[in-house]
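On clarity, I found the account of how folds are encoded harder to follow than it need be. What matters is that the chain and its backbone geometry are given together, residue for residue. I therefore recommend that a typical entry be quoted early in the introduction. An entry of this sort, consisting of the sequence and the corresponding backbone structure tokens, reads as follows:
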Amino acid sequence: MRILAAALLLAAVTTPVIAQTPPATIGQQYVPAPWWMRDPVIASIGQVKVEIQANRAGFSASFQSVDRSVAEASRKAADQVRALSQTLAAYGVDKVRVETTIATIPLYEQYRDAEGELRDNERADKIQRYQAVATVSVTVRDVAVLERVYATVVASQPSSTDTVYFSLEPDNAWKANLAAEAMKDARRRALAAAENAGATLGPVRVIDPTGRACQTDVLAGWPSFRANDDQQTSLEDVVVTGQRRMAGPPPPPPAPAGVAPGEAQIEAARLALQPPLQTLTDSACVVYGLN
């Protein structure tokens, strides 16, 4: 019984290893073809591309305050962004998302070293003031309100403002449409190829939305596969700068710090910000039999 149990245990341990053994040795002259190539087939890759307007935008702005007290510096920085944050939050989270953070850094007493370079004396008893930086990070999910949102932030007199970046977040309907069109394109290509070769298209053997099945190199002596990432295009952030729409009368005086800007200040700071077009692609592999 012990011998039988040991034999069964050995079989259980070795079975997964046997299942993972490749069908031939790497470098062998001939290797088995995939099962769907036992009869004449045609592998067709469908490819589609579409341009869609970017539907996300974002930027950030910073407000600085300096005081001898770290608490007072943070309070002053928070006062500068409180009204702005409330104004932007009024758009609703489905259109505009706002994230506000406050960071403080010490400002040390400075001295000149032996080479005459100015350096900070980074000791706790040498802190002269504290600088608080309130950063408002804005993500615009409805680009229709982007120009007004950006103008509102600029009119609030931030210490610095980053450039606007755009990106595309395609919804599920776009993804499904692209996948369907890739399949249709694969059939169109297969029909044309079969007709040009004097054959007729047979039934479908393999449908591979990832496209890997059509990338098997069965003539190279060993099946080789190219890693295929997500079929959708990798969309890089696009930075776009804006220009004022027209030359007009002198802009009104800016709103006081900590007070939400008025309509006149917002319109004076308004820029033309047009979301760019982004390219989205997809592909699919369909293997047909040939008659």
